[in-house]
Amino acid sequence: MKECFKKIISEDEWLIEENGFKRNLQGHRESLFALGNGYVGSRGVLEEIPYDSYAGTYIAGVFDDTGAIVTELVNAPNPFFLRITCGGEKLDPVAMDVIEHHRALDMRKGVIFRRTVYSNHKKERFAYQSMRFLSMHNKHLGVIQARFTSLDASTEITVHADMDSSVTNAGMLTEGRKRHFQAVELSGAKNMRYMCFQTFEKNILLSYAGRGFIERRGKKKPAGWNIMKFKVKKGESICFTKFFTIYTSYDVDPKKLRSVTMKDLNRSAKLGVDKLMAKHAKAWREKWRLANISIPEAPDIEKALRFNIYHMLICGNREKGRATIGARTLSAEGYRGHVFWDFELFNLPFYIYTDPETAKHMLLYRYKRLDQAREIALKRGYKGAMFPWESADTGEEATPAWSKGLDGSVIKIYTMEMEYHITADIAYGVNHYYTATGDKDFMIRYGLEIMLETARFWASIVRYNRKKRRYEIKRVIGPDEFHEETNNNAYTNILAKWNLLRAIELYRLFCRENPKETKRVAKKINLKNGELKDWRNIAARLITHIYKKNNIIEAFDGYFDLKDILITQLDPNLMPIFPKGVTSRNVGKTQLVKQADVVMLLYLFSDIFGDTIKKKSYFYYAKRTMHKSSLSPSVHAIVGNDAGDPKAYHYFLISLYADLKNIHGNSPEGIHAASLGGTWQAAVNGFGGVNIKQGILSINPKLPIGWDKMSFSLKWKGFTLSISVFQDKVELSFESKKKKDSLRIRVFNILREINANKRLTFERTGRRP
Ligand code: BGC
Fold this sequence. Notes:
The protein has 17 helices and 31 strands. A hairpin with a 5-residue loop joins strand 10 (111-119) and strand 11. Helix 4 (342-354) runs parallel beside helix 8 (421-437) and helix 15 packs parallel to helix 17. The radius of gyration is 27 Å and the shape is globular. Beta-D-glucopyranose is lined by residues 327, 335, 340-342, 479, 481, 594-595, 629, 631, 674.
């Protein structure tokens, strides 16, 4: 296959390959081979849509109601559809015999290359090869080019390459399959195809335009849209190219939708495949310039890491808050495309440090839904802003009341009622962005308001316990969802405390730096004089469980009194198995936790906990964490690496290969967004030892044995740092036009002044951490 595309396909280290067609692996591979550009995502389904395959095309932010339960990401018409028949038989790996089948996802360029050789019932062979991409240069544009060759006999073929609107959403549970749109306009003009669909409930218009060309015997002709017939001689090839553009009524005024979609298509198609590909590849090069991580001694790990990064690059949205990243990206319908805390804590850091502009766009997603968060708080009897546990397009609570539990049975969901921590997680993300970028404009326009309104929420949800003379937060689910309705979850309380204090700090800072604008914000939200004082008082008396029982943070009130059962068995992927007698129904009575909870806290606040608490707490919970969420292993990799747990590398591998090896068994339902970001953090923050301590960037690497060097780029305060970490050495530099620019960075625990345009090397002097 590579031979056919030798001029454009990248080197092996950039390719995720599929060799041979396996029907039962289609779902998994469709997720792995997903394409995207942040605006639209498309599953890597084979163009002919074989039996049992699942075509999925998702436009960021386009949700529709299901009628039965909650709103879901719409599976939109599939523009890559291309069906060929030869002599009446469908060219398809299920319908025909497959002699040869290779596909490669070229991560460097975001292109799928493919070659398949089929044989029909007469043993005549037909070669099919294709390449397709969703442009990173023009997010509305996609291209597919396919070449058919009859290898053994003359034949008659039909080609059908319309947009496939027969797709439906798979339906997660009770809602069942559903098509969310109907065609409201269908037309063709001069070899062009125009289709406009409208979603049923929200009336969003999805505007598609397409243009096709057929090349044979050295001649290029416009293609038709209905089924086209051709006689093909033995050995003859026929090449089909389709360009398409997609817009929605979110992007353009409905009245102009048709003309904008068509104009863009015409302009693009005129440039031709090569030029469009060149622009697309250039945009990708720009993305990788900052996002790539190199680990010369571990090429397999480097490639798998690249896969995780690739999937983040294809879903970073830059539409001023229209959308952010759902739990399963734009690669399938898992969790109905809803957004969780996964984004702010797992994915956001990757964007903050490699593409802060995109990070900003996606943080605006929360800002633009602050009114809904205020409404949720009000409805629940609280003040300020309370963000929904699951969010879709409007920012209203989108958590379903029912879902499937770990054992497959239908269970009631309480997360929307009790998993409050998301509100502080969002504040954490906002503050993280600000700390790393120094973007004051963002803070004054949006961030500060989020910080203050979330703090206000915490101040209204706490209850004072007179007897114990402390503030408490009751009826909570922490990140560990095995335990519902707990009181004083340490994770939630500590984040709440931090949220209160940080809001005060930032408010005071901006009062000094920009009093006029800060006053405007305070006026807008009607911030009262005494509020900040109250917040400080609450923060000081909010129970946090930090010093309980031998320096181990207690996950919540009474956690240590629960039945203590340790994990003893692992499955073939080395993931914990429920100990005998423990099921998903009774696990809440034990100390087993679903995912990193206290350990997550240790990570987020690594500079406030002392080493003893960190180590003791980590090892305690590591023996009791079931990792029944893809959010968990990466966090254990980071904190474990710091604590000297030899298993840390193993946790990293679980996170690294979560989707490549379908470790959680549900990758067909979409790529696990949080695992992608967690993996990146495990590499950069864990092994690379990158951390923020008291607002200062700190680098203290602890590379796994066998890795001599890891190189990456980091955006910090507007500069791009180019960093190489070694076992006992750090090299770094940043460029600036102003020679006098410098940054204060802590390397190996020593604060250093780094001047622009100079490559500096620092050797470790003390012991390895
Ligand atoms: C996890 C949550 C996560 C959600 C979406 C759940 O299984 O427990 O922490 O936000 O999945 O990824």
